[in-house]
Amino acid sequence: MARVLQKGGFATLLLDLLTPAEEQVDLRTLHLRFDIGLLAERLIQATDWVQSEPATRGLAVGYFGASTGAGAALVAAAERPPMIHAVVSRGGRPDLAGPALPRVQAPTLLIVGGDDPEVIRLNREALAKLRCEKQLVIVPGATHLFEEPGALEQVSELALNWFEKYLTRQGLRP
Questions:
Q1: pLDDT at residue 169, rounded to an integer
Q2: CA-CA distance, 57 to 41, in Å (whole number)?
Q3: For residues 70 and 94, is the Cβ–Cβ distance under 8 A?
């Protein structure tokens, strides 16, 4: 995804929201990956850093999150509404953003695999709670990880188009 966005002219920053030690704990407990508050706080810290750096201060920020990272991205977007201009969720769990969903102002694209019925249901429920510009796209024949031939390419194109639409308007992208 980062390569596609970079080819489209966007700067990217890839984050692991858990430290290596936390990843080891999470492999045993499966607890930290669902600590949306912790994950969102780390994303907010990274966003604040990006906005404080001279080289990136003027750039519009968009979030791309998968799985629980999508929930964290939506919580972070709700906490920093003037800074976040777009959110894309891939096979995400936006439902985990809970009460933050109605506070999200950034246009939000939810992308779900057509063969992932439980995540489709959760995304539809979250979509109903979002009050921002929003869209749900179901990729036919794709499962949760979009491992089927061409599925990730579809996700990349959808995300790139969304970011082009919302991060480049009004001169937000140099």
A1: 57
A2: 19
A3: yes
Q: Which two tokens stand for residue 48?
A: 């604040």
| Domain extent listing, the chain | 2-171
Tell me how far apart the alpha carbons of residues 98 and 105 are, in angstroms, rounded to a whole number.
Answer: 15
Q: Compute CA 119 distance to the chain's CA centroid, rounded to the nearest angstrom.
A: 15
Q: Put the strands of the sheet holding 84-90 in their side by side order.
A: 61-66, 84-90, 108-113, 134-139
Give bridge partners of residue 89 from the DSSP assignment.
Answer: 65, 110
Give the closest residue to 139 by CA, choosing from 149, 154, 159.
Answer: 154
CATH architecture, range 2-171: 3-Layer(aba) Sandwich (3.40)
pLDDT at 89 (0 to 100):
98
Tell me the pLDDT band of 30, cut-offs 50, 70 and 90. Answer: confident
Cut 0.85: pTM above it = yes
